[in-house]
Amino acid sequence: MENILSIEQLTKSFTLHNLNKQIRAIDQVNLFLKEGEFVGITGKSGSGKSTILKCIYRTYLPQSGSIWYNSQRFGRIDLATASEIAIIELRKYEIGYVSQFLNVMPRTTARELVKEAIEETGHDSESADLKTIRMLEHFELDSSLWDSYPATFSGGEKLRLNIARAMVKRPRLLLLDEPTASLDEASKSKVKVLIQQLMNEGTTMLGIFHDLEFMQNLCNREYNIKDGSFLLTEKQKNHTRN
């Protein structure tokens, strides 16, 4: 099976200007995903997990290394050096990102956020309306909130909306950055159902979860990171989903 993503020698540092000091977040990271896999990254807070995802999504620009993505639109492309226009296109049509935080334009309702995401994939307004309702109902977001602004939502409600907005596009590659952080068990279960559905449809996923129990029976492989570098044990190399 072909690799959809291959990370080679990825390094990212941050400069603390007030201290005239550089902090290395990740160092010489190598990672690969085959099409349809769900790969997990584990490690303590501050170990560099989120930095890897943000480099893939190009929220961060790496210092060095390559992030080769096998795109339907562009062919094999290095996300570390790709143009901003290409990155915008990939985010719109191929690569999704789910964070535990929701950053949206003000005065945009929950319904509009999900509908806009669906329309970006080419659906007309009527079918986008129906898909929006199904997704909001799936995550049990109270219908009284659908036409409200997310700024008024609780943390859990914002997170459910964030997940719905990303997953409704059925991206080829989905990056999950602690998406269940503030969810109750019932909501986590709904996220797991949708992840399994996306896996069955062929979506490739790279996820960070502190909730290791949530990852059980989902991940094909697992990488453990410490101080910016992976610790690959034989168990992690050979870890496969039952």
TrEMBL record:
<keyword id="KW-0472">Membrane</keyword>
<dbReference type="InterPro" id="IPR003439">
    <property type="entry name" value="ABC_transporter-like_ATP-bd"/>
</dbReference>
<dbReference type="Pfam" id="PF00005">
    <property type="entry name" value="ABC_tran"/>
</dbReference>
<keyword id="KW-1003">Cell membrane</keyword>
<dbReference type="InterPro" id="IPR003593">
    <property type="entry name" value="AAA+_ATPase"/>
</dbReference>
<protein>
    <submittedName>
        <fullName>ATP-binding cassette domain-containing protein</fullName>
    </submittedName>
</protein>
<dbReference type="InterPro" id="IPR027417">
    <property type="entry name" value="P-loop_NTPase"/>
</dbReference>
<feature type="domain" description="ABC transporter">
    <location>
        <begin position="5"/>
        <end position="242"/>
    </location>
</feature>
<keyword id="KW-0067">ATP-binding</keyword>
<dbReference type="GO" id="GO:0005524">
    <property type="term" value="F:ATP binding"/>
</dbReference>
<comment type="similarity">
    <text>Belongs to the ABC transporter superfamily.</text>
</comment>
<keyword id="KW-0547">Nucleotide-binding</keyword>
<keyword id="KW-0813">Transport</keyword>
<dbReference type="InterPro" id="IPR050086">
    <property type="entry name" value="MetN_ABC_transporter-like"/>
</dbReference>
